[in-house]
Amino acid sequence: MPNGSLDSILFHEKGSMSKVLEWKERYQIALGTARGLSYLHEKCRDRIIHCDVKPENILLDADLCPKVVHFGLAKLVGRDIGQVLTTMRVTREYLAPEWNSGVPITAKADVYSYGMMLFEFVSGRRNSVPPDDGQVRFFPTWAANTTSEDGNVLSLLDPKLKGNADIEEVIRVIKIAFETVL
């Protein structure tokens, strides 16, 4: 893919695009990723649970259209079966709670991972990097504390966007992120 992975662009790693992903681009990538996951979960003949949804596994074409890739950990689940038992092999920062509890995994595990990515879309920071105060904490908890301190959900917004974002869309994305992970 000409634009590489989402993480290299979103987090400006070596060899990636030098431009900042504007809000409109982030929002379209978030929507496209959601459509891809919806296809895997609902439209395929056999339901597919990806089991490793993260920015590294979202590739972007020339038009920044996202493609969900890396199905090495994916599980095929028949239409009449909605869950699967599997061992934990996912990236910890995007890990749904059910992975730790030993219960069967459903498509909701992918939705949880997607919600963690939404926080990254908004904040422009990895969910595994400690906040400025250096304290390690659960990323959604940090996000909730950040927004409750001043009552402004926009305090999560990536400063590189410099007010260049549709506020209603940002709020919608933050709400979805909170609903999927908390």
Automatic annotation (TrEMBL):
Pfam families: Pkinase. It is a single-pass membrane protein. Residues 1-182 form the Protein kinase domain. It comes from the Eukaryota. The keyword Glycoprotein does not apply. InterPro entries: Kinase-like_dom_sf (IPR011009), Prot_kinase_dom (IPR000719), Ser/Thr_kinase_AS (IPR008271). Keywords: Membrane, Signal, Transmembrane, Transmembrane helix. The keyword ATP-binding does not apply. It is found in: Membrane. SMART domains: S_TKc. This is Protein kinase domain-containing protein.
